[in-house]
């Protein structure tokens, strides 16, 4: 038995099959690009996509996943509510979840956040510069104090998320906005990281610092945790007066 | 037009009508006890209950509410999903929400938290002592460093909530448990406070420090806020190179 | 006796007396500009400056101050350590503290933060745009979702502060940086707000949104709080087995 | 060159030499007990004590330390301010710091927190039960949902610290108090963990869950981080209008 982290990269995988511009950037799909790019980091990486049975996310598959990476965009509504519920339960039990880019509007992210997860956006080939605001965080490991993406979609504040547990990156955009682009959350025993970059028409997931961030986040989210708590009717641990 | 804070106290109002023990403590219902107890604080206070049409929470009613106080227990499942959605939207737009005691398991609280909101519990007439752990917080205004409830239901950790924005109270229980019993959250433009005490068989909502906490929380949650953000496709504020 | 918030605006007051460019912008000093600008908000506002005896911060003066506003820059080292200690003690007892701009490097702010409070800076007449990232916060009350300063000194990340309790503003700068420009902290019973804008050569403290932020912060920091805790050797509140 | 984490356990080492009761529990000193107890976890562990030259904390020694563990009690005032400053600088540069028990009142902890770090205490042989309140945290790895110490000194709230980044443990005490007994902070590039248990008259540092917590915290604090930021006068990264 391996002690390697077991990662499942989930991708909607529609743009790449129906849009020539996207197919040129990601001919085998964003999930394959991520699988290849993360392979250097020593994880066991599988993939799953929307149009597979149960979206590729059977109970067995989720039980064998330490960290799930999620990319979706135009078909959030086609993700079955029962599967979303299943993923949420696994997160609460301890599976890590890395939500990428337009996944901010996925059912699973909104369900775990409790907010609209709305934001500003613009497709204008503008420069993004990601600044590290918490250099002590393991998700910033090995990164310079900032890194740049020459062209990306803009996401701007206000980003309607709960206050993150920890804020790791803030983005600067050429057109005048800022964005909390790397943020951690915990839900139940599970750890969640939202990471902004990755519009489907740009080669963002071939970028080394971007892959490093995702790999760091996978390791962070896969770390060992405490015992599953008991919930429900509990016996007293100490004597109660008059009993 | 008044600038008084407009409060709606929502109560399931079932125990009080069907259980003689509870009726003795709250003959007119928990909502009436809270309405009376909070009246000294200068709010405009209305009530709403589960068995009213739309549970008393029409769109107009919610639009005229600055802060909603929520008590529910045995009939969480009977709250209509469409009304829960309506309340969530109003919270995201800025309505305050104070969730009391067994309301931890209400649909609205779980929806806003994204977790199971599960916990340990025990009905054993035990003493609860609430310690202030953030004395600078306005919800602690005017309180001593701790206060006691002679008999309450026990709620124990682990409490499956996201990390609070701010933790104001931690409870000690006679039987050996601790609990994060006063916790703040923000969701969208709305502020949320969870407050633990208030089992239906105890006269908790006649207790002065308990009422003071709820009144403080109402004021805190009703405070003025920033403008509603624009979400969606945004024009650039600065020139973008090559455009 | 008034229940108005008692504010003391502390200013180093050196640039304005020795630099003609600054004197043109703030002929009577930054403290007088702030006193005038905040007067519309209904506070009792006094001032104090470095070259007064005890820097104008006698024990009596601090005891009569609900919220202290701090601007300093070139003479941080001339602030007496004993006065810094006195201010820290008052903050821990509940006095609010609003630290402005170059006050990030003041002895009092570094002492309360425990970090270097270092940052990047540049004087280049560049545009700053402040985005509200927590619109539910009372410090954002009445503000639009962003506001601009046509020319300011740049402050850039990494800003070496502890993680704020709450992050209210993030700045975008024309030259390519971002900055956590509005951040809250609590220390003891005192509330602290750091607010970035205010280089001495720009008319920043005549700007309406800037004044509104400072006024909001004063109100937030002056709010009532819980009782002063007892520290030290404590008697048991419950029987201890075998005693 | 090893990639093992390099730990230095610092101990005041006075009680053990001058108090027979303590010497019986820790005949070679608390630092030796910790060194032995942590040895199973695969760290390179050295020790340092107050009465060594420079308290055993030379610049070279600190530069070769990834994580410093600190126990002190009766002689906090004898720790040289210059050494405290040196330790603080190393923390800001990325050295981890684990502060144990009465170390809450050490100069280094107070300097990094900015508060009094005061608390309630009582020596009465009472039971402490530590509850995990953030089971997703790596410091809780491998722990049950609570663990007990049959006899310990009581520490009670209010504990005058800044709001922790993350709260991992809350203690219940037999005599009626609660305490935030495991709390994380970050300062600069360094990570800090405060852990409550460890009064010198009890065999706490032979307890397996206690050692596990400290070992988990060492690993957490030693994790790789982002690049050292540049602080100071910075060149623009983007063109500034009119320049």
TrEMBL record, chains A, B, C, D:
Pfam families: ThuA
SUPFAM superfamilies: Class I glutamine amidotransferase-like
InterPro entries with a match to the protein in the record: Class_I_gatase-like, ThuA-like, Trehalose_catabolism_ThuA_prok
Domain ThuA-like residue range list: 6-221
Domain of life of the organism encoding this protein: Bacteria
Entries under Gene3D superfamilies matching the protein: 3.40.50.880
Protein name from the UniProt record: ThuA domain-containing protein
Organism field: Cohnella soli
